[in-house]
Amino acid sequence: MTSKTRRPAKTKPAIALTVAAGPAERGPVAGMSADEAATELECLAREIARHDQLYYQSDAPEISDAEYDSLRRRNDAVEAQFPDLIRTDSPSKRVGAEAAAGFGKVRHRVPMLSLGNAFADDDVVDFAARVHRFLGLGEADPVAFVAEPKIDGLSISIRFENGLLVEAATRGDGSEGERVTDNVRMIREIPHKLSGKNVPNVVEVRGEIYMSHADFKALNEAQAAAGGKIFANPRNAAAGSLRQLDPTITAARPLRFFAYAWGEMSELVSDTQHGMIEAMRHWGLPVNPLTRRCRTTDELLAFYNDMGEKRAKLGYDIDGVVYKVDRLDLRDRLGFVSRSPRWAIAHKFPAEQATTVLRAIEIQVGRTGSLTPVAKLEPVTVGGVVVSNATLHNEDEIARKDIRVGDTVVIQRAGDVIPQVVSVVLGKRPQDTQPFHMPAVCPVCGSHAVRDADAAEGERGVVRRCTGGLICPAQAKERLKHFVSRLAFDIEGLGEEKIEFFFDEGLLRTPSDIFTLQDRDATSNAPLNSRKGFGAKSVDKLFAAIDARRKIGLERFLYALGIRYVGEQTAKDLAKAYGSLAEFRKAVDAAIESGKSSEAYADIDNIEGIGEAVVDALIDFFSEPHNVAAVDALLAEITVEPYERLTAVASSVTGKTVVFTGSLVRLSRNEAKAQAERLGAKVANSVSKKTDYVVAGAEAGSKLVKAQELGVTVLTEDEWITLIGT
Ligand code: IVH
């Protein structure tokens, strides 16, 4: 980095800065002792890193270019005099921080999935029973599990080719993460080269990066002394330290790693989880020493209790334990449900609770106009995080728990879940409290707010909704926030705050505005880089991030539209069924044209996972000319790419359409569906001429009759299992 790329400081600091001492005040280099030089190099490294951070990441420099340059020259001069004292995190070694416009993206060759959760012992019993049932085993047939501590850090995938570390990526949305290779190379516990003879050509190690309690404490102390960011907990500290554009900052942070899984492997060196982990240990990777093999549910639960007792003394955070089926061939048969493997589960420790005072109840207006009461709390630390907001869900919940402003309340927080108000400590209720009443008008636009009456939420829904629709600015903002969110367009640098700002400034109203922002900015008389809080660098970065999203997958696009009931899974189901946006639009337009009892309506309804509520919501959305115009304007700016079908395992049922009906014994309906899809079959809801097989369980009704009428092949559950060969 040279000063030529830096602009003059935008703001002058109001207070004297500890870092602003010029070379003259620091004394001549020539007469320095080695101790003094070491101390000064340490200070300079810290100071320069802080200014880089302020300049490049916060876009809020505190010193001028000249002052900055003099710090760097001073550092160079001291290093020239004491070359042995050059630090690993020396500013003179740092290259390219200014060039990195965020991290590059990496598509995971094998998706990084999450785990289903168990909270109670019964959930674990159910998990084990499900595994047995799915595999067609009796309760008494043993299935070995591996039980591991669940490390509370961030997951990472590290790729080794011919034994050498070539790439590392964060989990991201599971399909695509951020390339953090240089940073991961800075973690001492992670070898750059795997040792041993039996290392396959391609090894993708997956595991958790975390920070120990002792290191976390020391880091925060150092940060406090240097006026840097204080981290709320070790997980945030680990994540913040890994996601540094400048790897030398990561190098100075004490990160650790445990390997517990793998992605792509050119060869599996074992046929069990414990064998694979053992191999990783031989290759020089850190693995958790507390991992155990268990044969019964009782052993799993004993492990959980044991970890619960050891938890406080481990020296790092764990938030539960993970159970995994040990044999890899059994895992292949078990497969996945949605984003989680059926062969593993996380058994979480109970949520942490605290009591605090409820200061106020605020109403938030969501994307679909829902009014959500939010508790504003006296800040309190729960499980290492300071909590000042918690959800109150809806007005019925508030009435049921009789929660009033001024009450002392019990709140709880579990993992990433939004903190909740659990109950009121009635003994501490002040005298003059009043029951809470939900407003009957939207607090943002003043339109009537009425309670839903819709099929999905029962007779009278619990949600009160603003009827302002398109005129309600709160809804419009929330729709835009949803549009740019992680599972939708995921535009880096365009977070919730920026959306608020652009909306309030009148620069963004609908999604297409995001993609025309740069052109409009070029001719604006108040361009972004002239505004407070923006610099040329950050504006360029933002435009680059927007441009990077001009191509988007169909499933993300459909999710981003924010159509009611079209969440992540439904968007994926629709994308999978139609493949391209053109086919999808054709199907919806046909349904709009021919109405509810038409074949076109039934065709959408017939997609597995899609029900009437979704079809109606699609019809409502695309019947509204304003929405169609907004989508078309967007399509003038972007390209929607066809759905990428995961290559299913070729099988006897690949390409066939199957309908499951009646109650199945060996599999649940979801399990049967997932398994069929993995084998390349299409699963439909209802029977038609296009159906190849109807798998009929006990008490099959009208679908079986229809199959017989149409002459469709009907199979029993056992015949189906024989056909697919599991
Ligand atoms: S296995 C396909 N094992 O928990 C399953 N995950 O809630 C891959 N985690 O994203 C994960 N310790 O970040 C596994 N021993 C362990 C773990 C573990 C922590 C995290 C991981 C994962 C999350 C799922």
Describe this structure as you would to a colleague.
- The chain has 24 helices and 26 strands.
- With 726 residues, the protein is of the alpha+beta class.
- The strands form 7 sheets. Strands 14, 15, 16, 17, 18, 19 and 20 form a 7-stranded antiparallel beta sheet that branches. It has a 5-stranded mixed beta sheet with strand order 2-13-10-3-9.
- The radius of gyration is 29 Å and the shape is globular.
- The N and C termini lie far apart (60 Å).
- Bound molecules: 2-(butylsulfanyl)adenosine.
- 2-(butylsulfanyl)adenosine (IVH) binds next to strand 3, strand 8 and strand 13.
**What's the CATH architecture name of the largest domain?**
2-Layer Sandwich
Count of structural domains: 6
Assembly annotation: single chain
Uncertain runs: 1-24, 95-101
What hetero molecules are in the model? 2-(butylsulfanyl)adenosine
- Number of E-type strands: 26
CATH topology of the largest domain: D-amino Acid Aminotransferase, Chain A, domain 1
Fraction of residues in helices?
25-40%
Q: Mean pLDDT, as a whole number?
A: 87
For the largest beta-sheet, the strand count, sense and barrel status come to: 7 strands, antiparallel
Radius of gyration: 29 Å
- Tell me the structural class: alpha+beta
CATH superfamily of the largest domain: DNA ligase/mRNA capping enzyme
Task: Report the span from N to C terminus.
Answer: 60 Å
User: CATH first level of the largest domain: which class?
Assistant: Alpha Beta
General shape: globular
Q: What is the count of helical runs?
A: 24
Strand content: 15-25%
